[in-house]
Amino acid sequence: MGRTKRSLVVTVASALVAIAAFLGLSACVSTDKDEIESALLALPKNERIRAHGLVRETISARIGDRVIEAEVTYLHVAPRVHSARSVPPIVLIHGTPSSLFTWSPLVFGEGDFPGLVETLPERAIYALDIVGHGITRTEAAPYTFQGCADWIAAFLARIDARDAVVVGNSYGGEFVWRAALDQPERIGAVVLLDTSGFPRNDDEWLPEEEAMREMSLAYIGYAFNSRDRIEMALGPHFPAGVSSDQIDEIFEICNNSDNWEAMVDLARDENGTRSPDLSRLTQPTLLLWGESDKAYGVERFARQFERAIPNARLVVIGGSGHYPHESNPAAVARHLAEFLGDQLRTK
Predict the structure, then answer these.
(1) Across residues 303-330, what is the average pLDDT?
(2) 291 DSSP assignment
(3) Rounded CA separation 95/342 (Å)
(4) Rounded to whole angstroms, how far apart are CA atoms 188 and 346?
(5) Which residues constitute the domain of residue 44?
(6) Cα separation, 157 vs 279, whole angstroms
(7) Mean pLDDT computed over 4-19
(8) Cβ pair 191, 288 in contact under 8 A
(9) Residue 7 DSSP label
(10) At what angle do helices 171-182 and 145-158 cross, to 10 degrees?
(11) 3-class SS of residue 58
(12) Residue 47 and residue 110: Cα distance in Å, rounded?
C-alpha cells in the first residue's frame, strides 16, 4: 500500500476515534475478561481446550523494575508417554493481539492431523497467555516487548523449566528470543514463527499498525472493534481464507480495553532495539516462516534472523502466511518434531 493511501487510513481512523471520544463511547464498551473467556471456550475450534481445562494461579513476577503478584493463565498437557531420559517441555507463546487459544489446532489437532499431543506424546506442553493479552486478568501497563519477555521468564521459573523448548509467533517470537537471551539456563531451544525483532522501514508497516502508531487517540480504538474490521485485518495473513472461529476469537479479545492498550503499546515499542543481541543467542534455533507472510516477508526478515543467529535453521512453509501454526499445523508439527529429534540425538 502506498504512503498516500496509508495516510488516508490513519486520517480516517483518527477522525472516527475522535468522534468516539466526543460521544463518550469508550467508557462503556470494554468487555470483561470473564466474558471473553466464556466466549473463546465456546468456539468450536477450542472444544478440546474447553474439555481439557485451563490452569490459573498467582505467581510473583518481576516486570522490568517492578515485582508484582500476577495471575497467570495457561494450558498444561502432561506427557502421555513417559521417557527413560529427561525430556524438556514445549512452551508455546502467542503473538499480539492473540492468546493461548491460537495454539489449539497445533496442540490438539485439526482434520487428519492428530496434534502435538499424539505426535510428541513424551513432551509436556504448555501454552501461556501473555500479560495484556487474551484472558489474562493481570494488568501491567505500559506494555513492552521486554516486559512480556519478563512475563515468560517468571512463568518458566514457576514451572521450574530446564532446557525448555520455547516456541513463539509474531510479537510472541520476539518475547521468546528476548527471554532466551535473558534466561539461557531455562530455555534450551528456540522456535520462531514469523517473528518480529528487526527495524522496519516507514513503508513496511501494515495500515492498522500504522494507525496505532500514529493516532493520538489510538487507545480507545476498541470502541470501534467489529468483526468486519477484524476479518479485513486477518484476511491477508491466511492465503486459504480465515475461518469464522478465527475472526470471532480475535474480535472477542479486541473488545477488552487492556488488551487493546497492550496492542497499541507494543506497536509503538517495536523498533528493533535488541536485534544486535541476536548474535549472542546460543540456543539451537528453528525458524519456521510462512512463504506468503505480509508482515515479515521471508527475504526481508527471515533471512536476517538466519544470518544473525549463530545456530539457526530456516524452513519456509508453503501455502502459509503469518500464522503457519494455524494455517498448516501439520507442517509445523513435522518440522518441530524433526528439530527436536536432532536436539535429542546431539545430547
Answers:
(1) 97
(2) T
(3) 27
(4) 13
(5) 3-345
(6) 25
(7) 41
(8) yes
(9) H
(10) 60
(11) strand
(12) 11
Amino acid at 150: D
The answer to whether 187 touches 281, Cβ cutoff 8 Å, is no
Among candidate residues 200, 163, 165, the one with its CA nearest the CA of residue 185? 163
CATH number (domain holding residue 159): 3.40.50.1820
Q: What does the chain come to in residues?
A: 347
Which residues are registered as beta bridge partners of 166? 91, 190
Count: domains in the chain: 1
User: How many Cβ atoms sit within 10 Å of the Cβ of residue 185?
Assistant: 9
Per-residue cell: 337: 518434531
Q: What is the pLDDT of residues 223-244, one digit of tens each?
A: 999 999 999 999 999 999 999 9
CB atoms within 10 A of CB 306: 15
227-234 helix and 244-253 helix, angle to the nearest 10 degrees:
110
Q: How far apart are CA 262 and CA 281, in angstroms?
A: 26
For residue 189, the tally of other CB atoms under 10 A from its CB is: 22
Question: Which residue, chain included where needed, has cell 468456539?
Answer: 43
Q: In angstroms, rounded to a whole number, what is the distance separating the alpha carbons of residues 97 and 161?
A: 26
Rounded-to-integer distance, Cα 276 and Cα 305, Å: 11
Average pLDDT over residues 83-111: 94
The amino acid at residue 274 is R
Between CA 198 and CA 302 the distance in angstroms is: 10
> How far apart (Å, rounded) are the C-alpha atoms in residues 67 and 237?
37
Q: What is the mean pLDDT of residues 161-174?
A: 97
The CB-side HSE value for 206 (13 A sphere, CA atoms) comes to 16
pTM for the structure as a whole = 0.92
Distance between terminal CA atoms of the chain?
Answer: 48
Cell numbers of 22, please? 466526543
For 201, the grid coordinates are 522501514
pLDDT of 27 higher than 70: no
